[in-house]
Amino acid sequence: MYRLRLADPADLPAIVDIYNSTVASRMVTADTEPVPLESRFMWFKTHQRLNRPLWVAEPFSHSSDGVNVEVPESRSVLGWMSFSDFYGRPAYRHTAELSIYCHGSIRRKGLGSFFMHAALAAAPGLDIKNLVAYIFGHNEPSLRLFEKFGFERWAKMPGVAELDQIERDLVILGKRVS
Predict the structure, then answer these.
(1) How many structural domains compose the chain?
(2) Helices in the chain by DSSP H: which ranges?
(3) Which of 142, 68, 139 is nearest to 99 (CA)?
């Protein structure tokens, strides 16, 4: 159903659009306003390293004989996943933050699980021993996804974010992957 590939600069507008589509929900990001495309250029550049990739998912189809065939809109970005440095100090080099964002039209249709399978399979080859995720305590769909794949609640930071005058908890999930 989906094909995973490394993101290229032409994907950045779609990546930012998907990210910005989550801002209004107050469920996914601590940004309170959409971010401008230009503000993500350096972020994108940091994900051009082999051990901290940014991947996008595109639609993929299977022919009747089971062979994978790209659908015409194969450059249509349905979602993205990134591995980011954790805390930026050398001693943490084997730990990465995992972020997953899906286009609104494709949420709850298996793309998050597709990304999660790919992330867990790729992590050891990226020299990652631990994956962490920062998820708002009220974002039950994301918490369920990560917990379904064996992530545990490593920490809870009560009331550290304020969105529309409502204090929100941040849950840190983690998983040892190698």
Answers:
(1) 1
(2) 12-20, 41-46, 111-122, 140-148
(3) 142
Q: Does the model's pTM come out above 0.85?
A: yes
Q: Does residue 67 surpass a pLDDT of 60?
A: no
Tell me the β-bridge partners of 134.
172
Cα(29)–Cα(64) distance, rounded to whole angstroms? 40
Looking at the DSSP bridge assignments, the partners of residue 68 are: 62
Q: What CATH number should be reported for the domain holding residue 55?
A: 3.40.630.30
Segments forming the whole domain that contains residue 84: 2-176
Q: How many CB atoms lie within 10 A of CB 58?
A: 18
Q: What is the pLDDT of residue 62?
A: 60
Q: pLDDT by residue (tens digit) across 142-178?
A: 999 999 999 999 999 999 999 999 999 999 999 999 8
**Secondary structure class of 41 (helix, strand, coil):** helix
Is-contact 123 151, C-beta < 8 A?
A: no
